[in-house]
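Assess this one:

_____
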Amino acid sequence: MNSVNGELILSADLLHNLTNDQAWHYRILPQEKIGNRLRLYCSETADQNALKAELEVLTGLFIEFNPIPESQISKLLGKFYLKDKTGNGSTQLHLDQNFDDFLINLIAEAKNLKSSDIHLEVYENKCRVRIRIDGMMVERYIIKKEDYPALINKIKILSNLDISEKRLPQDGRINFNHHGNQFDIRVSILPTLNGEKAVLRLLNHDTTNIQLDLLGFSFVDFDNYLEGLKRPNGIVLISGPTGSGKTTTLYATLKLLNKDHVNILTVEDPIEYTLEGINQVQLKESIGLGFPEALRTFLRQDPNIIMVGEIRDPDTANMAIRAALTGHLVLSTIHTNSAWGTVSRLLDMGIPPFLVANTLNTTVAQRLIRILCPKCKEGKYLDTSLFPRQFIPFYPVEEHFIARGCDDCFYTGYKGRKAVYEVIPIDYELSLEIKKGNLYLGNILKERGIQSLAENAFKIFSDGLTSLEEIYPLLFNF
């Protein structure tokens, strides 16, 4: 039995000896397969003779059993044979179906499991499929090496890519419509050492559940953020790494600002959500429609509010500054490690300090942390030596909660994610400091009561909503 830190590890190749339905119906899991013999975990209370006869007919293999407690069977089934919690039953796919069915059902399965990405990867001796759930990668399938190219070609055909091009990266898009479930998929193909890797990003068009006041802002940060949005012009920037929820915050903001008397234009890559009443433009750099080109045209479209998917180069930054100077409210994202780091990033792009000071309304840093499953989290005494070195807790915490895992959370111990913010409103005094080029304002920000990412994350931790493991990386930014 393979295990890491006492946790049982079953490979995707081994798991596919049983379907979801078989595993849950007979309450069994594969332990190992040698030749035509399959050894299974089963419950200590199971009728092994009857089970053996039925499974040997079903699988065509010689069956052996390793009895374990029923409670452990339930835990392992919930961990290794994920079931769709929406009431649609099992989601495990059959690898012997044709590629059309396999790919379509793979995408449908990932969507039902609330996955954000599907990764198809090729190595020297095997190919695998992994999906990302709540920010974590989960291995789901092993594919035969000889079958993998046909699956990649199917993805290329659906996303209108060149199936003969295997040397260069390609990007495409799939409009997925299956049993009334419609959404877009962004496709990225990357040549690697052993073949082509494909990543499918599942984009959600539904903005029904996106509300700005429910994303995770503290009361103080929410007020500061809204204050920046009330200005008729200027720039509001949200920073953070890829996958930190910046785009969701922007869409929630647009949803709040979307009124009949307001003209809103967006340029995005890709368009992740669709909002009625907002004019959304898809970036197409292959034909010369980049962020700077779109922004130049936007200024002739009489906008009130402009959303730019990302400020990634000096040309885009300059056009965003120009739009803000001419009386428009500009919303965008940028890659920095902190809210105040946004100022340094803009200056590094060659924007003069006086222009940054005159146009920047609010700068926001954002991260996503997983929330502990309320049904299985376990309280423990907090040993302060577990904190990073040199980190001093903002206030005493005697008890913390750790992830355990149950059927409700696929035995991950976590269920859902929450955004953590750091919001800095740029007022007159901070504008003067920017004009002076003074970028070390830690004491001034503390005097203003600006709550850092670390402080807001620590508050969620002390409230028992997340674990120390989840906030640990943020505690270095105190």
